[in-house]
Amino acid sequence: MRASGYGRRDSGDADGFGSAKERDSGDADGFGSAKLRDSDDPGGFGPAEQIVACDPDPNEIRRGLEMGLIDRGDTRLERVVDGVSLIVLAVPVLAMRSVMGELVRCLGDAAGDVVLTDVGSTKAAIRDCALEVFGRMPANLVLGHPIAGSEKSGVAAADPELYIGHKVILTPEPDTDPAALARVQAMWSACGAEVLEMGVERHDQVLARTSHLPHLLAFSLVDTLARQDERLEIFRYAAGGFRDFTRIAGSDPVMWRDIFTANRDAVLASLNDFEAGVARLRVAVERGDGDAMLAIFDRASHARHYFESLLNKTSYQAEYQMQQQGNLRYRMSPGGAVVGRIRVPGDKSISHRSIMLGALAEGVTEIKGFLEGEDSLATLQAFREMGVAIEGPYQGRVTVHGVGLHGLKKPSGPLYVGNAGTAMRLFAGLLAGQAFDTELTGDTSLTKRPMNRVADPLRLMGAEIDTAEGGRPPLQLHGGRALKGISYDMPMASAQVKSCLLLAGLYAEGETRVSEPAPTRDHTERMLAGFGYPVHRDGDTCWLSGGGRLTAAPIDVPSDISSATFFLVAAAITPGSDLVLEHVGINPTRIGVINILKLMGADLRLENEREVGGEPVADLHIRHAPLKGIDIPLEQVPLAIDEFPALFIAAANARGTTRLRGAEELRVKESDRLQAMADGLAAIGVEHTLYPDGIDIVGGGSAEGSNYGGGRIDSLEDHRIAMSFAIAALRASEEIIIDDCANVATSFPGFVDLARKVGLTLTEESGEEGA
Hints:
Elements: E1 2-6, E2 36-38, E3 41-46, E4 50-54, H1 58-66, E5 72-74, E6 84-89, H2 96-106, E7 115-118, H3 123-134, E8 141-142, E9 144-147, E10 167-170, H4 178-190, E11 194-197, H5 200-226, H6 231-236, H7 240-246, H8 253-262, H9 264-287, H10 290-313, E12 328-332, E13 339-342, H11 348-360, E14 362-368, H12 374-385, E15 389-394, E16 397-403, E17 415-416, H13 421-432, E18 438-441, H14 452-460, E19 464-468, E20 472-478, E21 487-489, H15 495-505, E22 511-515, H16 523-530, E23 536-538, E24 541-545, E25 555-556, H17 561-573, E26 578-585, H18 592-599, E27 603-612, E28 615-623, H19 644-652, E29 656-660, H20 673-683, E30 688-691, E31 694-699, E32 711-714, H21 719-728, E33 736-739, H22 744-747, H23 751-758, E34 762-766
Parallel strand pairs: 1-4, 1-6, 4-5, 6-7, 7-8, 10-11, 13-26, 14-25, 17-18, 21-22, 32-33
Antiparallel strand pairs: 2-3, 9-10, 12-33, 12-34, 14-16, 15-16, 18-20, 19-20, 22-24, 23-24, 26-28, 27-28, 29-31, 30-31
Main location: cytoplasm
GO cellular component, one term: cytoplasm
EC number: 2.5.1.19
């Protein structure tokens, strides 16, 4: 079997055999080494018997032979297609019609199962060529676009590692042959690329913004400066930023002429958006409007860092709205001690609310202790996208330039909140009262979580909200709806639902009253009061009236008691432990974990109690003491709902049985935490009985040594499951391996370093190793 590549140099655009270059998302132009289907494995690819190439320039053919990139080649297409099973068209977009015309006349000489693909950076134009030449879209034609390369071209620029770690976008049609698609996917995967799929129109829109527009601007800037009299001085003293930005202006001019011609409409649309942005910035500079300039610069700077962080640390593909699976594993060695003095990151719930209320306030809010985890950063970035100027974060410090309750602006696209269920539900409330439409979306885990619990009462207030099937994200909120206050009895205890309705109540006519069946965290009420907005409470009901205003106030975020819990339990279960956790929030609605551990016999003391910004804080001093199993009081369940995964590990090390009921809320967290923890406990040999709303855990109760074995845990991408079984290793007899730990960063950045600091033995591994 043979592979054939076709490259045209007469249009001034070729990259050479063996490279199939794509110049910063431009038009790939040479033929890349294709691996053919192995006859013993119809779905896979083995080495090609021959790689042949066609190029109008005989010198390129000669160079490809000399470099060992091809087995043979010719300047005439009909001389190289005989018997080939894979044809890669690497030609300029505007030359594609004539090349396809030549191909259709000799395609009968190819193998009966021949597959066609291309490497161009605009797909609609190439699809149109195929429709014109073939009369239809051939089922064996799979359009593709590799996102890799440099401004260099020609066979001499061939790079055998060009595609490793880079993306290739395929744009199959509904009637594309699945076998043909699988073969093209396998070819690119064999080259080390990550293969994605996207619709043709979406592809051209995305590339117009992320590749074509930057090239257009680079060409224009260099051309503008090059035509000025003082151009020699300009270029002589050009700084690194100028060189970095304009490097792509050295790309092939003919190729880019063809790209801009073929993708004209999408390029012009992106250019219109850019020109509007430049006009806004020009006005800000002319007026000396520092806040407006800061909002633009800070939003851009942190968008760059934020999305880079998402791409590097999580699975979310910001540009393409696609997902991958987590690929980080923890390997925990058994045993260890827990000693020292540490401060865990800031409270996530308060960090979320500090940004939200600071943005809606009038004036400047200074925040200290902000949690720089992905969930909180997602909230921060969302407000930047709605026009709020935010400085930082820098070492936990953030400055928010509030725009008032009615100062938010329509974002240019969906607001992505990552894994943050708190952010999505609270955003639903405050965005329901805006004048513009918004869409809220998140990562794979979040899209499985129920949102009707906030959507339904918001609809009763007059909001118009669309959800995906089953009341799940994404949420579509239609702006401009007049909201009216309601009295709402929550069917379940949920601080997120309560906070959502109170935030919507800021925009509603009349009073919004929320009654809860059991106490839940009251950060929203406390912080609203701190921002000067009256909130009232009588028993289990709190309420506020719409139409008021928020006034900026400083915030000192206490350490997160949920994050502190993992180390509280670690010290409680490990002989010889002596640990102090500094500046931990002890809000009365959050201290269920403290109460439960004390009931189990933990040696836990609150020291240096004080109040900071309306929130009580203390240093938590805990030493090891034998724990006993208990029946967890029902009134403590909502006060410790997020801490139960770690508390289950405490129960596994207690003497006797610990019983939990009334915790059905655990089934709709980032994972079904009851089931996930039960599965994990089974994996390490802990006796338990699972119930619909709880669990019984029979503890090992040994004063020394191990209380259970080791095993392999599937965290289901749930950070709290991962961290809970990490601390379980302290009393295990063998190592515990925990899969899918990448999301730990969503709630607890720095967990690994702190765990090692206090005495745990934790190794991070790629999830692919040893799978």
